[in-house]
Amino acid sequence: MNMNRRGFIKTSIAGAVGAALYGSHALAAHHGGKKRVVVVGGGIGGATTAKYIKKYDPSIDVTLIEPNPHYYTCFMSNEVLGGHRQMDSIRFDYEGLKKKGIRVVQDTVTDIDAAGQIVRTASGKTYQYDRCVVSPGVDFKYEAIPGYSKAVAESSIPHAWKAGPQTEMLRKQLEAMPDGGTFVMVPPPNPFRCPPGPYERVSQIASYFKEHKPNCKIVILDPKNKFSKFGLFMDGWKRHYGYGTDKSMITWIPADKGGKVIKIDPDTKTVHAEAGTFKADVLNIIPPQKAGAIAFKTGLTKGDWCPVDHMTFESTLKKNIHVVGDSSIASPLPKSGYAANSEAKICAAAIVSLLNGKKMPEPSWVNTCYSIIAPGDGISVAMVYAYENGKIIKVKGSGGLTGKYDPELRKREEMYAHSWFNNITADVFG
Ligand SMILES: Cc1cc2nc3c(=O)[nH]c(=O)nc-3n(C[C@H](O)[C@H](O)[C@H](O)COP(=O)(O)OP(=O)(O)OC[C@H]3O[C@@H](n4cnc5c(N)ncnc54)[C@H](O)[C@@H]3O)c2cc1C
Question: Is 3.50.50.60 the CATH classification of the domain at 142-285?
Answer without folding.
Answer: yes
